[in-house]
Protein: HTH tetR-type domain-containing protein
Organism: Mycolicibacterium flavescens
Amino acid sequence: MAAPATAPLTRDRIVSAALSLTKAAGEPPSMRTLAGELSVTPGALYRHVAGQADLVALMIDEVMEHVEMPDEATEPDPWRRIRAHVHSLTKTLDAYPGLDRLIAHHGDSSNAARVRQQWTMDQLRTAGLNRRDAGRAYGALDIYWLGSRQRTQRSVATFLFGLDRLLEGLRAHSRNSSATSG
Amino acid sequence: MAAPATAPLTRDRIVSAALSLTKAAGEPPSMRTLAGELSVTPGALYRHVAGQADLVALMIDEVMEHVEMPDEATEPDPWRRIRAHVHSLTKTLDAYPGLDRLIAHHGDSSNAARVRQQWTMDQLRTAGLNRRDAGRAYGALDIYWLGSRQRTQRSVATFLFGLDRLLEGLRAHSRNSSATSG
DNA sequence: ACCTGAACACCGTTCAAGT
DNA sequence: ACCTGAACACCGTTCAAGT
């Protein structure tokens, strides 16, 4: 599988190499290290990628595209769909240590991120939350999974315990507000 | 208030200047910038501080010492004490933009952090959680406030909404487990 | 069109040498 | 004892010059 002579430098090869190095080192490579891995000069990267920030965004896109969003057939309860989705986020990021910190720094304004947000808010509305509460609930869940990736990693048990408490609180809130208007 | 001639370089002056620059710039200064602000050469800093990581730890210590931990006289309900404490964390960090990210990266293994952890777990146990659940609940709260500081800042309303849902879920959990053993 | 080589303006850290 | 000056080994990014 050795590349014959010199494979053409493309955006995909750059992103792929960056992710591979991240996986191996536990943190994203510098532009210079990345260039070296691709047997190229640092300046060459800038013909295919606008800069480090752009590259980071592409890496995040690539990884986050594989997060699960179960449908009603697979999982009839919307709360369990949300739980599976958030759990999937952490499992996905476990494969690329250091990428979670990049997401925290850089944010994620990709299309995929907007799709995930819309999907989550749809589930929350299906579960009975009004539009304002669904927006806030999405924010709270986003805060929670992101926080779980920072600092010294917490145990999975702690993460799931808190996630279940948060979902339970949201469900109770949804019951109360629908009771008020019923 | 101009310093006469040359004030002696001390650890306190270094930490104080670093925090002041962080407040002004929205992000922590480099060692070189910090040295320049103190009218000194970068190497001089290393006589008083082990390095950048050490300095960051000292900055975190200094700031986090002012987080509120209300007592029973001020606030009789343990859940409200916890809520006030977590809210105080965010208010404290609002004064030093950029420091929250440092905490996420660096962690906080100071004595003050251990005191806060112990205090929070005491409140949770008072509120009825057993030791294991109190540990996990502390972890979940830690995840939540830390996550709220990352990326583009969420609104206060979203933060408080999620915090209240999480606390509600924890309270419900404590009621269920005490009912089981009662 | 694409890449190299070299430069610019930065980093954190160390340490002989000065005072 | 404390600080300076200079160096070492890095960064991200730009851009004339080569092919």
Q: What stands out?
A: Chain B touches chain A at residues 101, 103-105, 107-108, 133, 135-137, 139-148, 150-152, 154-155, 157-159, 161-170, 172-173 (CB under 8 Å). Residues 8-9, 40-41, 43-44, 47 of chain B lie near DNA strand D (CB under 10 Å from a C1'). Residues 156-180 of chain B form the longest helix (25 residues).
